[in-house]
Give the backbone structure.
Amino acid sequence: MKYFISWTHSDPIYQHYFADVRVLVSPPNVNLAWNVGLWPSAPVDLIVDSGAFQYHRAGRSPSPEMVLDRQLHLAAGLDTPVGICHLDILVAGIRDPADALRRSMKNLTHARWLITQGADHLPENTEPIGVIQGRDAEQIFYVAQALAEMGYRRFALGSLAGKVASSRDEVLRRTEAALEAVGPRLHMLGVSSVPVLEALARLGVESADSGTPIKEAAWGGIFYSEPFRRYKLPSAHFREWQRTYSFAEVIDSPLPCACPVCRDDPTQIMNPNGKVAVNLRALHNYYHLRRDIEGSHAE
């Protein structure tokens, strides 16, 4: 399974340190003037999602046209493959079946707009991605089939974040339903749990994204691979860490590691304070998480 790092302005530029980096960017996470040309080096693959989660939290309802214009500006000038998600409508947390169905129908309306009218504006290196949204596995199956019938050949499954925390089995059921409907060209949006990412890789999905390396680094989390292990720096945040990972161990010195940060100076990842240290730890965590998910060296 291919791993995409979810990226924001304050994160390290992973492709500056590693080869074959895949990146997902959500437009609300970068400023209006920014685009990929400001990166000193390009990723080998880019997904630009619609920003639906952030727009929903902010109470905003952008139009599909506005979202596509924003996405195309963000990705302008990149020669490597780009996937563009249509404006999707979140279904997560909707208990009323009628409301969930209404949202799914609106999601499909936006998807139809991108694959017909919006597709005329896409550069040659850009492929539309149909975003599957549903409240259960059955609805996901039929939404995925509808997207395939529209002409989509690449898909993403959304509204997983809450389920990853509350019901991992449900995430796998929904994934299996989507795979049955459209096959393996399936991307999993925003999956932060390492065990779930590992399980998705075993199911055979094409790719997944998360911001886990930087999120864990900010809390003093350190990853190592082969086998995958997570540790915690001694800090005031240890109790918060234990609530999520009761098995985490405190580490007070670095273990052997071949990542670019540790090859330079392994003690750099041990500083619990400061943004520079967090970013270096994120690079280290990315190296080991990607090794675990892809089964290859992130070098």
Notes: The chain has a mean pLDDT of 90.
